[in-house]
């Protein structure tokens, strides 16, 4: 864990962070190892990489409680020290990742003496180059409204992690809980999808795979998608667009593609190879009414909406807030008229709620600059990875704005269970509220 302890974290924010880290420590097992790095003007390792045995947990909690907030914000140095901790490991766990939290803007690395370039924050040993095994991912958490969303998003995107916007500082522990709920259940590593065309005239035109690298080769006759790690109960959906030749003669069925998946079992370390069913298309002489695949249409709607979120955010970054809102309103209408939208599909309903919230965030310049940009980037991160992250504002607190800035379409049971545990723990340890004094009847203050 890489923690910001700059001066802006002083007081209640630092106490919330200490409590959240304590929750993470409590929920790690004896086979798990944890190191904590803290940064302000400089960065230091607070806890060496140590197993979370009973003694290890006690020592880690005691060290975290000693943290003091002061100084500036040097995110780049914090990541450099964290990368060094991982590089110096003598024993390597099967799963390794970094959780980075900051409430401010880097004043040392990203734009020092030159235009801002956030990729400078990421050490080369953590940058994924699209080939071979992935490096440890960095999951980033923007804490409160004053953090640098663009910086945190860039760090997450360049390493294969997710960016989460913790708008309501009180729920930072829930954000950590959601993240470790997934990290503690990694089931598959080094997953790769291979698609090969069957009919000699079929060609892959395009693949929509979000933030997962894909490569077309053999003249469009084959494509691969690098998926990487999957948590328990996670799934990934990719759209593959193919060109299909006209049916020849009495050809009743045309073979489209065959699919295969290779991966490594995280528990055993053993490699596996799974073959999927061949995809074919019927070629009848006469075509009657055919219902579209709701599963395919749902994904088409989601991908198109995600692309328009990016376009709206880019417009707002240029100062074109009205145009950004127009893009999203137009997309909202398309989603509403889509087959899954008119059928009341739950995923589309959540997507429509998200679009409405983002419209409110983008059309007002001040709102966009304070929280809107972070909402857009965190939602795009979640959709691009197809992994729960997004934003935790009032998500777990109810109230009138319960749909406020969130993208939770990819929550899996272990994440929900861990967040529930966090909420219960926070409720149990919260100080009792002082009852409001009742005014005697007929009197006023």
Q: Rg to the nearest angstrom?
A: 24 Å
The count of helical stretches stands at 11
Low-confidence stretches: 394-403
- H/E topology pattern: EHEEHHEEHEHEEEEEEEEHHHHHH
- How far the N terminus sits from the C terminus, by CA atoms, comes to 49 Å
Keywords:
14 strands, 11 helices, 445 residues, single chain
Describe the secondary structure blueprint for this structure.
Layout: E1 2-4, H1 12-26, E2 33-39, E3 43-51, H2 54-65, H3 75-87, E4 97-102, E5 137-143, H4 149-159, E6 163-166, H5 172-183, E7 186-197, E8 203-208, E9 214-217, E10 222-231, E11 239-243, E12 253-265, E13 271-275, E14 279-282, H6 294-317, H7 321-337, H8 339-342, H9 346-363, H10 365-385, H11 413-429
Parallel strand pairs: 1-2, 1-4, 4-5, 5-6
Antiparallel strand pairs: 2-3, 7-10, 7-12, 8-11, 9-10, 12-13, 12-14
């Amino acid at each position: 864990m890489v923690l910001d302890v700059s001066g802006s974290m002083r007081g209640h924010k630092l106490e919330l962070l200490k409590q959240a880290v304590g929750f993470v420590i409590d929920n790690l097992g004896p086979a798990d190892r944890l190191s904590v790095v803290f940064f302000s003007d400089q960065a230091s390792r607070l806890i060496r990489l140590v197993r979370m045995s009973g003694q290890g947990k006690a020592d880690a909690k005691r060290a975290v409680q000693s943290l003091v907030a002061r100084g500036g914000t040097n995110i780049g140095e914090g990541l450099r020290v964290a990368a060094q901790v991982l590089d110096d490991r003598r024993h390597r766990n099967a799963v390794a990742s970094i959780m980075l939290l900051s409430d401010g803007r880097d004043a040392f690395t990203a734009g020092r003496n030159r235009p801002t370039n956030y990729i400078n924050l990421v050490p080369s040993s953590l940058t994924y180059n699209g080939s071979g095994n992935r490096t440890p991912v960095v999951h980033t958490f923007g804490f409160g409204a004053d953090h640098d969303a663009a910086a945190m998003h860039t760090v997450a995107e360049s390493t294969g992690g997710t960016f989460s916007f913790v708008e309501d500082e009180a729920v930072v522990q829930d954000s950590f809980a959601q993240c470790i709920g997934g990290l503690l259940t990694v089931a598959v590593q080094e997953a790769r999808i291979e698609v090969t065309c069957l009919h000699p005239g079929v060609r892959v035109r395009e693949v929509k795979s979000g933030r997962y690298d894909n490569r077309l080769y053999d003249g469009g006759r084959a494509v691969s998608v690098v998926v990487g790690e999957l948590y328990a109960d996670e799934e990934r959906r990719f759209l593959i667009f193919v060109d299909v030749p006209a049916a020849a003669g009495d050809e009743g069925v045309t073979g489209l593609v065959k699919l295969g998946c290779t991966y490594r079992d995280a528990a055993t370390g053993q490699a596996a190879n799974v073959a999927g069913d061949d995809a074919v298309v019927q070629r009848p002489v006469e075509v009657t009414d055919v219902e579209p695949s709701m599963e395919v249409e749902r994904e088409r709607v989601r991908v198109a909406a995600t692309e328009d979120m990016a376009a709206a955010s880019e417009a707002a970054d240029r100062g074109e807030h009205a145009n950004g809102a127009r893009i999203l309103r137009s997309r909202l209408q398309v989603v509403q008229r889509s087959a899954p939208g008119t059928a009341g599909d739950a995923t589309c309903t959540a997507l429509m709620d998200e679009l409405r919230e983002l419209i409110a965030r983008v059309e007002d310049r001040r709102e966009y600059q304070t929280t809107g940009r972070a909402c857009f980037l965190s939602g795009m991160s979640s959709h691009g990875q197809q992994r729960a992250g997004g934003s935790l504002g009032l998500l777990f607190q109810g109230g009138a704005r319960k749909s406020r800035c969130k993208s939770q379409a990819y929550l899996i049971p272990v994440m929900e269970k861990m967040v529930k545990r966090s909420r219960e723990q926070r409720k149990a340890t919260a100080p009792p509220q002082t009852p409001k004094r009742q005014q005697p009847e007929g009197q006023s203050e």
